[in-house]
Amino acid sequence: MREKQYPQEKIANLTLYSRIFNTEFNISFFVPKKDQCSLCESYKNADDIEKVLKDEKYQLHLSEKNLSRIEKENDKQLASNDINRSNILLLACYDLQAVLPTPRGEVSVFYYKSKLSTYNFTISDIVRKESFCYVWNEGEAKKGVNEIGTSIIKFLQSECNIGKTEVIFYSDNCAGQNKNKFITSLYLYATTNMDIDSITHKFLVVGHTQNEGDTAHSVIEKQIKKSLKSGPIYLPTQYVSLIQTAKKTGHPFKVKELGYSDFYDIKNITECNKKNYSINYDGEKVIWNNIKVLRVEKAQPNTILYKTSFSDTEFKKINLYHGGARGRNPSLANYTLKQAYTQKNKISVNKKRDLMSLCQDNYIPNIYHDFYKSLQS
């Protein structure tokens, strides 16, 4: 329109405008971060009166965020130095990637149908810069404590056989997957039955949990998007191949594909014996959501150590058999891991119906139909 009104005037195109805007001025377009901290955003958007009311909680939040980052940097330095010394410290973080759906592609009908979920639980060795991906789909198992715990056990079995006796994990604060009595019992089992002297788990502050697992998942997602340009992804096994080839430099991702018979009943470790997880040595109620650091030791097989702040200098203690069963305390040394499932996981009837409709209408090619028909519901 402007070119028609002023035919003699030279109009800059978008490319020229963008180049000048981004290179000749000390300004740029703001790109919002993903997963922004809700507490920080709430404080930032509050008026002056609200900020006064929120200030104490906000300052404590910032303090814990900064302390957690310092803690992690110190651990990285400690683990890096340990490689050239005793080489007994394993420093890792873990995280569950966002659900990987199948079928997936630029087919409009895919967006309106329920899809099969594939899960990738990634454990990253922070010092060696290696990532281990444990992959399964919902036709095999769920994505709860049994699945997460099994992945952790398999990681410890493979990595602690090479002389690692002290383990430090970092993760987010997801209570359903990471911060709970079941995963803690798993750590107790590991220190009792494996050549591990201690396992310490440090929880990054909510809203500020960016870690090496996120980096690995970003690399994987980039590979997936590249693949989707060539066509849809129809099977979970295609994700396995994409993860294996995603990393172009350094150590490739080590992928372990899991089936229903591979999973251990992690909850049974806790439930087989009556144990105390709610009262500490001082008679105080344990608020698990407030825990920042957990630690278990081979030398103290019936004790959980914990801190509620990264600034704490001393651990508080939980005696597992405080007020529990009389007589001799049961020992995890005599415990054998149980298989969690005797058959494949059943998907919902509605999901199975949607997937079969995609097959019947040939949105999913015939070569893949047998896989979807075999899913139980």
UniProtKB/TrEMBL annotation:
<protein>
    <recommendedName>
        <fullName>DUF7869 domain-containing protein</fullName>
    </recommendedName>
</protein>
<dbReference type="InterPro" id="IPR057191">
    <property type="entry name" value="DUF7869"/>
</dbReference>
<feature type="domain" description="DUF7869">
    <location>
        <begin position="130"/>
        <end position="227"/>
    </location>
</feature>
<dbReference type="Pfam" id="PF25273">
    <property type="entry name" value="DUF7869"/>
</dbReference>
